[in-house]
Design a protein that fits this description.
Largest interface: A-B, 31 and 33 residues
Oligomer: homotrimer
Strand content of chain A: under 5%
Shape of chain A: globular
Helix content of chain A: over 70%
Order of helices and strands of chain A: HHHHHHHH
Number of strands of chain A: 0
Radius of gyration of chain A: 18 Å
Number of domains of chain A: 1
Chain lengths: ~210, ~210, ~210
């Protein structure tokens, strides 16, 4: 298995686990686990393949569906063993985001040849699974949290593209992109890193609530 | 009209009616009825056809759009005649789920030849319309209710596939799948059937709220 | 640049600005602006192209992504200059809805030849960006507001189709569709125009809450 295929399976599997963890937080039944794990696991890649107009990956290769189902079943029986399921959800989501964002950029670049499309594909692939998960499970969206999220997927995709542009082999470039994305997202989770949020009327904060509008 | 085409139209029409009923609960105008009926009626099948990479069914055959529009108009003028619109919504949704889930499995199997993909297609086709309806109408998602929902679509799809596998003709297999799905979903609505939900720390319920996390 | 291409860019650009304004209301960071502007700007057209089974427009022509990114950056630095950002959001959304709804009808008609599909494409193209924006930014959906919304996109699409049917050139027909849609939506915003909402039991309001169910 090549390094890039490995990132693909890491992304699908860990996103599926986060979907199952979300199902556990909502006390769904085993089929709810299967559904949410599958949608979260394959959602981003499905949108990617539809937009790139290539066959949807899990229709071609059924193993992905089985991987999602396995992740759901294991999580159903093992989730009570971990202490804070939401913390696990956030960290597994971070690894999946890094892995799958780079794989999305790889596939977008391989098929269209355009770095712009590749970066957008990395962003969609890395973040859409989590967005769908939160939407379907009726959780506050990970998008609305103050920590860096989309930025990490974007940075990983951009680093992958740059590394390819300067002639590095795919295995090195994908490693660089993965590490950058994971460090940014992980650092944000650990240390609360964030980018400056939009502030209306900079320099002239209104009396009551300085940054609110 | 073959039995399987009949299931297709039953699914689209009844999903469209549930969309219109949802619009009535939100006191939308007639165009809101048309929109929500159409999205609910054709949403699941559209995702199915995009993923299977076949022409989207209602772009090929306009009758589906007219059926959705008709369902919206009839519901706009007739919905006040029924006593509990939400109860009707749930039951029509149950029939549509059973019919459309089996049709999704049929189409998925016919095009890919893979039973795994067919079952996933049945689940998506049977449930996505209702998920979109609840999302757009800002109703609590039918997914989050305790009764069996996705499981019914899945069971219908699996029974259809098994019946085909043992050599039954499509008309019998689709009847079996439809009846199984409808009995499961209907029984769940009538008797409150559900699968055991996920419980954290089985056997050791914490003092306060036994099953919550 | 032809008139119809001009409507396309107007729609994408203004939708992108409304996405960025929505990001400003949620105090997201610059990457959040980029993401929400891009999804709002290209969301409706992406669904249109997937359903019509033609290459997704922004994968073919990268300029659209750059336009969305530019709109996000400009809005990030300029949004504090406007007095009521939500009012701007609604009005720019109105112009984008009119422009993009007509362009959707044009493309739907050009590719399928069917006026039914063209009208549905106009509705999807004109409204989906705003629906996604509100869903992702967790704002109350523009769909649920009492003013006319989907109706304006539909009216613009229908007028475009009728104008083409009586033999007017594309430039005139698209102008007619755009003006009709904008007048309907704009009048609705200014004067609170709306269509009669659904009322249960017309003529026999129950004692307590006359129109609620």
């Amino acid at each position: 298995m090549s390094a890039i295929t490995f990132l693909d399976y890491v992304g699908v599997t860990l996103f599926a686990v986060t979907g199952a963890l979300s199902a556990s937080r909502k006390q769904m039944d085993i089929i709810g686990f299967l559904f949410l794990a599958t949608v979260t696991g394959v959602g981003g890649g499905t949108a990617r393949d539809l937009i790139l107009d290539v066959p949807v990956f899990w229709v071609e290769q059924h193993l992905y569906i089985l991987v999602c189902a396995g992740a759901a079943v294991v999580t159903f029986f093992a989730a009570h063993l971990v202490e804070s399921r939401y913390k696990w959800l956030l960290w597994l989501d971070a690894i999946a985001l890094a892995a799958y964002g780079v794989f999305g950029a790889y596939k977008g670049l391989a098929i269209t040849g355009s770095p712009f499309v590749a970066v957008v594909m990395g962003m969609i692939t890395g973040t859409l699974g989590g967005i769908l998960r939160d939407l379907l499970a009726n959780e506050p969206s990970v998008l609305m949290r103050k920590e860096i999220y989309i930025t990490a997927a974007m940075a990983g995709a951009v680093c992958y593209i740059l590394a390819i542009a300067i002639g590095l082999p795919v295995i090195v470039a994908s490693g660089v992109g993965f590490v950058v994305a994971l460090c940014i997202r992980g650092g944000s989770l650990m240390f609360g890193w964030n980018l400056p949020p939009y502030k209306s009327r900079p320099g002239r904060p209104p009396p009551g609530r300085p940054t609110a509008v």
